[in-house]
Design goal:
Layout lengths: L6 E3 L8 H10 L4 E3 L6 H6 L12 E2 L5 E2 L9 H20 L4 E4 L9 H22 L2 E4 L16 H5 L1
Parallel strand pairs: 1-2, 5-6
Antiparallel strand pairs: 3-4
Length: about 160
């Protein structure tokens, strides 16, 4: 048994049914499949796999904007009510499945200053913290490279993410 635990992200293999992905992953010595939904855990557990990072919920706001994904998330106050509404049951399902880490995103800048985006993210996430603490969950803000493959993403450097 390796001292290094390898994992794969579910979205990279969306074309492969989860059952097949889990069987193949286990056969290769991979121990975890990341960014699955809480309801996928029985399939992972059947194959002796874990999930270190739960995927994200999405929903459409009254104006038709899909929020929760990388591009539209916590840096916009107008998305907060929808995000809170979808994250609360998602977090409860994650905790019920024995999971510990739930991914969240800043969203793209779209002209928003780093300071305002940071303030908005903190304001929105602060609303979820009591539930996260109650459930023993950690909300993990994804830091992505806006220079290469996620243009305009707000949380694109460590200094911003650490603040």
């Amino acid at each position: 048994m390796s001292r290094i635990n390898h994992s794969v992200c579910r979205w990279c293999y969306d074309a492969i049914p989860l059952e097949e992905l889990c069987a193949a992953a286990k056969g290769m010595g991979i121990s975890s499949v990341e960014l699955v939904m809480p309801e996928d855990m029985p399939v992972l557990e059947k194959h002796g796999l874990t999930c270190a990072m739960v995927s994200f919920p999405t929903s459409t706001t009254p104006d038709g904007t899909v929020v929760g994904r990388i591009e539209k998330a916590f840096n916009r106050i107008e998305h907060h009510d929808t995000l809170i509404r979808i994250y609360e049951p998602h977090m409860r399902a994650a905790a019920a499945a024995g999971l510990k880490n739930v991914i969240v995103f800043s969203g793209n800048r779209e002209g928003l200053s780093d300071e305002e985006g940071l303030f908005n993210c903190a304001s929105g996430l602060r609303r979820l913290l009591p539930l996260a603490e109650e459930l023993g969950l950690t909300l993990v803000m994804e830091l992505l490279n806006s220079k290469v493959d996620h243009p305009d993403y707000q949380c694109d450097h460590s200094a911003w993410g650490v603040k």
